[in-house]
Model the fold of this input.
Amino acid sequence: MKVFYDSSAFVKKFVEEEGSDKVDEFCQKATDIGLSVICLPEMFSALNRKLRENNLALEDYQIIKNQVFDDIEDIHIINLAPTVIQGAINALEQNSLRSLDALHIACAIVWEADLFVSSDKRQILAAENFGLQVEYI
Done:
C-alpha cells in the first residue's frame, strides 16, 4: 500500500502526540511511503518553533533530526513538477485550502497514493473530493 503523509501527520512519527500510534501503524503497513518535497521544511519549521518557545530541548531536536534523515532514505519524495502545480491550482479552485495543503494533495494524486494521511480536517475533505482514500489522524 502506497501511503502519503502530509507534514501534520508525518511529524507524529518523530514527536509523540495524539495519533502517533496510528502513524506508526500505517508506516508498518505501507509498501511505499510518499512525502511532498515541502514536507520536511514544514516539519522542521514547526520543530524549530517548538525549540525557540522552549517546548523542545535542543538534544531532542538533534535526535529527531537524525531520525528523520535516517528514515527518509527509503521514502519517495515527490517534487514540484508541472503536473503537481496544476493539481494544486485545481485543488485551490475547488476547495478552501492553504497553498501548501493543496500541494500535498496534488503530490499524493500525481504519486497515485493508495492512502492520504493528514491531521488537517479541511485538507482531508479536499483530498476526499479528489478521490483519495483518506485517514484523519
Observations:
- The chain has a mean pLDDT of 95.
- The beta strands are 2-5, 32-36, 76-78, 115-118, 134-136.
- The two ends are 18 Å apart (CA to CA).
- The helical segments are 7-10, 20-29, 39-52, 58-71, 82-94, 99-111, 121-129.
